[in-house]
Amino acid sequence: MEHNEKFTMMTQTPIHILIPKLAVPTIISMLITSIYNMADTYFVSQIGTSAAAAVGVMFSLMSIIQAIGFTFGMGCGSFISRSLGKKDVKSAEKAGAIAFFTAVVMGLLLALFGLLFIDKLVVLLGATETIAPYAKDYGKYILIGAPYMCGSFVLNNILRSQGNAVRSMVGITTGGVLNVILDPIFIFAFDMGISGAAIATIISQLISFFILFSQCNYIDGSIKIKISNYEFSPEMYKEIIKTGMPTFYRQGLASLAAIFMNISASPFGDSVIAAVSIVTRIVMFINSALIGFGQGFQPVCGFNYGAKKYDRVLESFWFCAKVGFIALAIFGFIGFIFAPDIISLFRANDVDVINVGTRTMRFQCLVMPLSSFTVIVNMTLQSLGYGWKASLMASGRQGLFFIPTILILPRIIGITGIQTSQAIADFFTFILAIIMIRDVLKELKQAGKLQEKE
């Protein structure tokens, strides 16, 4: 599809048809991305409670890698959508090259420093003495894959921002399916334990990287990611970082929040860390479907905002908010009812993990529908270039509300504080979302009316 055809599709196709068309591939991509960690958690949990907890501890490292990749990916993706909405292909290609090569270099620096200080790193991330050996064995391989994992996240967003969600899905899905296949082979058949899970992950991510890179560069209709398109530009970096910073705050604070969670849970034993880790993966898996749906919305939002079709921006916002609320309400109900059965899939022989995990999951399921509005608000603010508002929203869930809660409540009410902290943070983030989006929606509505008069 040529650029002019994409413009027509993004600005004229009915919203209720266009967003699902773009969202289904991104939902699949996000679910598959979650499967990377979900598969590792499931298979590693069969080794033991401390090993399962180690995957949870190293989730912080994965969040750092994702923070780098998604910051540049979302930052350039928003710019690319708006540029293509203005039919400025050259600027879109320049932004893509800057984001991709910068993310790869930063991933390389993370790998070098992480491997050099791996012993101190796992302790810093919250590993106990019994968890640390497993965390080290897992983390050193993940660090090796950091450069191209960062690049993959950027490529994924570049493809989606152009409306090429299906191509993005192919790369991510292939890697995810391969990871599920390789995990049991490396962990059990080759008797590599938790190291095998990490090796399976980085091999799968490498395959995804090559597929995504090929989709960008060797198929017509996509902007090309070439070193010749790279040009150091302070203005472009400023634009990418400004738009991408909300993602950095969100992912970076997710890493920091996981560290504080591990530190707060460690006095209660490895079972509590393992339980919280398992619940985090399950809830992330559910939320990844919502995020995928929202990522199908973002290019529609950016294209139409760039084309000054404000009525379509508003229509797409409310469409996503309503559909997301209904979907998460259903998932939340199912998760609340079957929480013990779901947790037992991971650690059937550990009663403490099941009991702690069940209560934790049920608290989060109670407020799960509210996350739909929060996520769509955050993505809207980011897509439209409302930098500080998007950054504040991105900081809310895991930063402004969760970190203080997880540091204070466990000291007052013990394990219950750990089990309820995320649900409390989610509720207050929902209130913040209402405050942040109210004036933006009014501005869009007024701009639409003014445009009609003109």
UniProtKB/TrEMBL annotation:
Q: Which residues form the signal peptide?
A: none
Family to which the UniProt record says this protein belongs: Belongs to the multi antimicrobial extrusion (MATE) (TC 2.A.66.1) family. MepA subfamily.
Q: Which NCBIfam families match?
A: matE
Where's it mainly located? membrane
Q: Which Pfam families match?
A: MatE (PF01554)
Q: Which domain of life is it from?
A: Bacteria
Where does this one sit in the cell? Answer: Cell membrane
Indicate the transmembrane segments per the record: 21-39, 51-74, 95-118, 138-158, 170-190, 196-219, 248-266, 272-297, 317-346, 366-388, 400-418, 424-441
* Database matches in PANTHER family: MULTIDRUG EXPORT PROTEIN MEPA (PTHR43823:SF3), SPORULATION PROTEIN YKVU (PTHR43823)
| One annotated Gene Ontology cellular component of this protein | plasma membrane
Q: Which GO terms describe its biological process?
A: response to antibiotic
Q: Annotated Gene Ontology MF terms?
A: antiporter activity; xenobiotic transmembrane transporter activity
Membrane topology is: Multi-pass membrane protein
Protein name per the record: Multidrug export protein MepA
Assigned keywords, A-Z: Antibiotic resistance, Cell membrane, Membrane, Transmembrane, Transmembrane helix, Transport
Q: Known InterPro entries for this protein?
A: MATE_fam, MATE_MepA-like, MATE_MepA_subfamily, MdtK-like
